[in-house]
Structure formats: C-alpha cells, structure tokens
Amino acid sequence: MAPFKLKFASRLLLLPFLVLLLFSRFTDVVSETNDADDLDGIQELIAIDNELESGLASDPTTHFEGSNSGKKSEAEILSKAQRIVLELNSDNAKRVIEENEYVLVLGYAPWDGGSADLMPRFAEAANVLRSLGSKLLMAKIDSERHPKAASSLGIKGLPTLLLFVNGTSQSYAGGFSREEIVTWARKKTGAPIIRINSVAEADEFLRWHSTYAVGLFDKFEGPEYEEFYKAAVADSEVQFVELSSLEVAKNLYPVPAHLEACFVLVKSEPEHYTALDGSLSKEVILQFLEDNKLPLVTVMNELNSAKVYSRPEKKQVYFFAETDVLNKVLDQWRDIAKKFKSQIMFVAVDINNDHLAKPYLSLFGLQESKETVVVAFDYNSNSKYLLESSATPANIEDFCTSLAQESLPPFYKSQPIPEKEDGNMLTVVGRSFDDLVLQNPKNIMLEVHTPWCITCEATSKKVQKVAKHFEGLDKLVFARFDASENEHPSLQVEDYPTLFFYPVHDKSNPIKLPAKSSPKELAILINKNLKLRDSKDEL
Predict the structure, then answer these.
(1) What is the pLDDT of residue 42?
(2) Of 244, 266, 357, 394, which residue has the fewest beta carbons closer than 10 angstroms?
(3) Residues 277-282: contacts with CB within 8 Å, 24+ apart?
C-alpha cells in the first residue's frame, strides 16, 4: 500500500461489519416433536414415516409440495425432515460419532437467530439426502443445553457445521441453502459425480438441483473423462453429472447435434448454460467453474452474504435498491455483467434490508439512503468507489469500464462543510481537509476522533484546555476530525484518538503526539515543535 493510502477497505477492517451479515435474520422454526435420543429411535421414526408414505413413493412431487389431494403439507414435510435429523446429547454424542462413518453435525442454540435460519434448510437437506440413499447421518446438538458435549465435538461458534469422517472432524465449507448442503455433503462422502442413464433419472435429478455441471461423453473412460473426474473430486460446490445419451442430455441443457466430449455449466438464471470450449483438463474445468458458477448478478441474502464476502474476485460492484426496483432492472444489470465476466463480481442488495445494506452503505455515509446506490470495491488497491451520476445502464457500464481499467477516482467519505465555526476548535471534514489542514498557512494541531471511541471524550477535554492556553497565538490552529464520518487519502489512522501536529512548512510529514499526554505535557510538546520550526525558519 502506498504511503498515506486510506485503509478503509482492508478486509480486516470490513470484517467486523460483514460478520453481521451472516445468519442475521430470524425465521420461525417448526417445533421438533419426538426427537430421537439415539440411533434406534431415529430408525423407528424413519420406519413409521415409510409406512405413512406407502402408496405415495412413486409421486415425484410428494416431498415439498402440499395440496388438498392427500399430499403432505409443507409443515408436515418439514416436521418429518426435522425428525430425520438425530438429536445429540451428552449421553450419545461420542457413540454416534464413533459408530458412523459419516456424520454431519449442526451445533445450535434455541435463542440464536442464525441457528433458527439454518435449521429448516439443514432438515430439508437431510430429507433429500435420505431420499437419495446417502449413507451420511445428519445430527444436531443444542450447545447451550449440552455445552461439554458440544465443546468435545469442536463446536465453538453458532451455528457451526462439522463433518465427521470415521470420527475425525473437518470444517464445513459449503453454502447454506438446501441444495448447497446436499451437494457438499455428497461430494465429501464419496459421491462426486451422479451418472444419469435415463430421462426419468434426469427428471428426478432436476427435482433437487438447479445448478450443476454436465459432462457428456461417448464412453466413461479416456484422458478427458479422467480429467473430468479429477475436477469433480476437487470441487466441493457444484454437483457434477455424467451422461452419454443425447436424449437424456436434452432434458438437462440444449445439446449440440454431435456427440463429443463436452462440459456444460447449468444455472437457474437467464444465462441458463455456459459451455466450456476446448479440451478438458482438471485445471481448465476448475477455473471455468470459478469464473462462471456464480450468477451474473448475485442477489445477496443472509445465507450467501459470507460467501459473497469471501469470493476471490478483487473487483466488486454492488447495486443497492428497493426490491421492486431490483426486479425491474436486474436483467439490465445482467447484460452489463456479461461484459465483465471474470473481471468484476456483481451483487444486488435490497436497500431496505438493514442487516445487509447498512454495513456497506455506511462506508460511504449513505446508510440512510433509500434511493438506488451503485458502489464498487477494489481489494487490490484497498479502494472504494461511488457512482455519483444517475444509475442508468450507460452510466453503470462506464463506471464498470473505468473500474476494470483502474481509472476510477477513489471515493472518500465526507460530512458537509460547516457553514460557521463555534469556539476555538476548527471542525475539519473530508472535503475541507486540503484547504484547512494541508494548504493552511498555519501550524495545525489536529485531533482525530470517533464517537464510539472510549477515551476520545477525555482526550478532547485535554485538547480543549490546551487550545485555550494557546488562544491568541496566530500561527497555531486547533482542529478536530471525526473519522467515523470523514476520510482523506493522506490521513492514515488505526487507533483513536490520534493527535497530529502539522508544521507549517512540512504538511506532508505530520508529527504524531501521544494522546495519553496530560494537558501540561501536550502543551510542552506543541511549544517544542513550534520553537523547532521557528528555529529552522531563522536558519
């Protein structure tokens, strides 16, 4: 980072804001009745469910659709799915982990909003995995009720997902929708590829999957198929499918008229499928997925916010607007996003969702805005940008072009310039920093503070006493700068409060003074620097 480069966009600085994005929304959770206390209990419940389902198993719409024709309601399905998830406790946790090859454990607490949000999806995933014949056991543990057992499993935060393979745990690294949990779990438990041999199997597959990668081969052998398999094992987010029938392939994506080895990524958006050109290799396939697996414009929600933040794309553009506006212009933004694939990540956020929007908008001083806002981040240069013209497609495309070319001027937050000053302390904002500090023909004593700083108020009182002591000295000006509302490229501050003395003849090299100094010590240091500068002037 260049000298005096503002560090607002450091991921370490943004992280405290963005951690709030994950699991911040509470949802109602259907009550969990008759949870099994051990493996025998869960098997009994499954057997009962199987009996209740007799005669309905052949109906492909049974699992998640309700109607008045005898099919189970959504609440009934969710209740059943939650019973499939084994409840761990202090007595059975160790035994369950030791006696099962694969166990995916959810650590939760009843009062935790993130847990409440994730548990229905976790239960739905358990239902799907069971219907697919997975040998993975899905379990959960109330870490508040059984803290020692939860701690022994390695559960620390809430919610926590851990996969145990033959008793050894590994962190969960997938998404948090039903489909993402299912895909990650199948990949980690020995099923990296699903082979589809018939149209009926293709239709069944589409019940559970909206994003997937298809490998079409004449035979499931040879160098390119081996590379396809290696890529399927290495990737943990996208479900891989292999097939050799053009007729079957037509159910999954538009197919060419010839049958050659090919690789296609299918997504549930207007850019429905993307084909990989050229020969297949593990590295090429994985890079292709990395460049294409996200939607052209990702609509951020509580479940994907952490994944959005952790994406490797260094340049990101965010659209903040009300939901009805987002729905109207999303296709326009997708058309723009197509032109910057592999260069910029595009994200749309409901501006009325305070949990998601405000942490970002506050970085621009726009946290109360209800109008459409377009901003960008470049994590290579730790810079942020604001589209200050109207958010028309043409202006947005020009904005993105300049971002890609690294020719956008960075944005620095600023309060309005005060119309008048009261007292003996000058108020400096981002827009007035150059005029009042860097270009001011006087020495400047600057106090940099924030309203949330614990010790800032005490330091301000000391500085005000010192300012009164020097009142009437024409060559010295005392000033304050609220760093929570203002920024400037030449001001780099990590701790608050911070005191800077800007000597009149060397404003580019401010002298940092100890904020813990007493009023007397501070006055002595200021005098020392004033005399030092006067001596240099005389020389």
Answers:
(1) 40
(2) 394
(3) 279/224, 280/215, 280/224, 280/227, 280/228, 281/227, 282/227, 282/230, 282/231, 282/234
